[in-house]
Amino acid sequence: MQHPYSSCFSLLAVSTLMVAVLMASGCTQPGQPGNGAHDGLPGADVSGGQQATETGPILTAPREGWYCGSFKLDSDIVNSRMDTAVEAARQAGFSFVGMVINSSREGADLHLDSCRQATGAGFLCIPCQVVGNCEGWLVAIGLEGPIDANQSLDGMIDFIHTEGGVAYITHPMQDGNCSEWRRWDISTMDGLAVVSPMSQTMQDDEKAIDEWHVFLNNGYRMHAFGETDTKPFTSTYALSNMLDSSYQCLHIEGNLTRESVIDALLSGSFYVTNGPVLNFTVNGHGLGKMFNVTYGEEVNISLDVSSADAFSKVRIIRNGVVIQEIGKSLNRYTANMTSIIARDTWFSVDVWGGDYTPEYHDFIHAIANPVWVHLAE
Fold first, then answer.
1. Packing angle of the helix pair 108-120, 82-91 (nearest 10 deg)
2. What is the phi-psi region of residue 134: left when phi exceeds 0, alpha when psi lies from -120 to 50, beta otherwise?
3. Could you give the CA distance from residue 113 to residue 107 in angstroms, rounded to a whole number?
4. What distance in Å separates the CA atoms of residue 40 and residue 375, rounded to the nearest whole number?
5. Which of 134, 160, 221, 248 is placed for a possible disulfide with 167 were both Cys, Cβ 3.0 to 4.6 Å?
6. Cα(107)–Cα(130) distance, rounded to whole angstroms?
7. What is the separation of C-alpha 250 from the centre of its chain, rounded to a whole number of angstroms?
């Protein structure tokens, strides 16, 4: 999904005057929607200006109230080295991990105890399960006990929800025996792994994002996850590199607890990343939030992306359609624009860059879960 660079944004380096012209024109990438008529309302897509910023401090960690972590730390691999695993997670910038505990294996109780001890020692560890069949596989966040796999996926998801957990599809686009997701008609899961560096290629991730957009356009509040699989490791540094190849950053009000993490995941108050820091709001409402407007009302879209490693593409998305895109190597980018609402609408952002450790396919990325705008009657 490599798009040509925006001819408009390539002018940003020319002069401050040209930047001002762009801000006034609401310029978009050639071939992408701009200020034309959409949804039966003139100017229903994007108007106003945007501003690209290459100067200023580069943010390398989310602001206060944001916590990052991954949910597929394999207890079979790390249990005897839990101190190393916690240190690796801290080096990755994490505030929590989800540890997959295979309840059917000998020693599962010891693995669960290790997770509890890590939490007791000050680093939040949330037990998880992986379950599924040839229809597909799920990660169940927040479950300590086993899930009966001899039932439909719908039944498994219902059980996970009954137990107070979160269910997302793991590596949904990966080909292989009993690993490819085959049930895109199931809409009760909480999310899917749109980025899975150790299991999917970038092309797979693009397909997963397209499938995710279909769910969103059909009105399902389904969330994008990023994940990694734990492989045998030789050092804390190696494990840290695996863990931070794709993870979640959550906005949490109050204390960081297992319950507050699950609440944030269920509400969509998080984004997927492997480094870029995202700040994205619509009318001041953050990720996962929904607010009401009247027909024809204009909303303000604000974006700030910052990354220690340069990214090369940023897309602002409305109902699955790219309404703004820049293609330029940057470490900091800001945009402000407006959009007129003529129907229920969701907005999201994704960011892409180079692949710095090819064995993991962990090209620079960040994907924002939607902000929802409801058209009030």
1. 50
2. alpha
3. 10
4. 14
5. 160
6. 16
7. 10
Q: What does the alpha-carbon distance between residue 206 and residue 213 come to, in Å, rounded to a whole number? A: 11
For residue 235, what are the CA distances in angstroms to 71, 94, 240, 241, 371? 20, 17, 9, 10, 39
* Nearest-angstrom CA–CA distance, 162 and 151: 15
d(CA 213, CA 190) in angstroms, rounded, equals 14
Q: What's the pLDDT tens digit per position in 134-183?
A: 777 899 999 998 998 888 889 999 999 999 999 999 988 877 767 667 78
DSSP label of 11: G
Residue-wise pLDDT for 113-126, tens only, equals 999 999 999 999 99
Nearest one of 298, 274, 280, 284 to 349, comparing CA atoms = 280
The DSSP H or E segment spanning 273 is strand 270-273
Q: Kind and range of the H or E element at 302? A: strand 298-318
Residue with tokens 């949330």: 126
Whole-number Å distance between alpha carbons of 172 and 166? 16
User: Hey, is 196 helix, strand or coil?
Assistant: coil
> Amino acid identity of 103?
S
Beta bridge partners of 216: none
pTM of the model: 0.86
Q: Kindly state the tokens that stand for 230.
A: 């734990």
Query: For residue 86, which amino acid is it?
Result: V
% of the chain with per-residue pLDDT over 90? 64
Give the dihedral sign, CA 82/244/59/298: negative
Q: State how far the Cα of 212 lies from the Cα of 260, in Å rounded to an integer.
A: 24
C-alpha span between 140 and 126 (Å, rounded): 11
Retrieve residue 240's tokens. 């840290």
Residue 237 CB neighbours (<10 A): 11
Residue 256, exposed/middle/buried by CB under 10 A (0-12, 13-18, 19+)? middle
Q: Report the candidate in 22, 314, 259 with the shortest Cα–Cα distance to residue 141.
A: 259
